[in-house]
Amino acid sequence: MWIRPMSDIGTTTELAIVTGMLELLECACAEVTVNGQGEPCFCGIYPGSNVSWDYCGECSRGKCGMVYLRPGETVPYTIFPRAELDDKCVLPLAFEMELGVVRCFPTMDESGELPDPADITAAALGLIADQYALYSAIKCCETSLRTLVIDRWTPSGPSGGCVAGAWTIYAGI
Length: 173
Description:
alpha+beta
């Protein structure tokens, strides 16, 4: 399979959205490292309709979890970011993205003992810290994205020793 290098991205729109996504992701990972639960194991763009939680567990040096940016739907628009049919190929595009975090969550031990309630509370508060660190990245980081709008935070899990949440955002070029 052949993947185009960044230098081969053809249109100004393609280059702007890719550059803006990378800038936002870099800032989000820095914000979570400093103001959230600390440096994650994975920080990257994740393709597809769902993000795999493979990087949820501890990886090294006490790091746990992942920060990701997942490209979503892309639609032409007249009123940002509402989808509109474009039969003339003239409307600008709105790019939906999911900026999220996945972290470790306490589970039963080998003897079947439930996790300590204080550990569950600490995990919940840690996810809130990550949530606000990602929000800060979206609102405060300088990127080449012309328009960036926050929609909602959606929590996920806990499941399999992991808990997560993601902001749905829209970017216009």
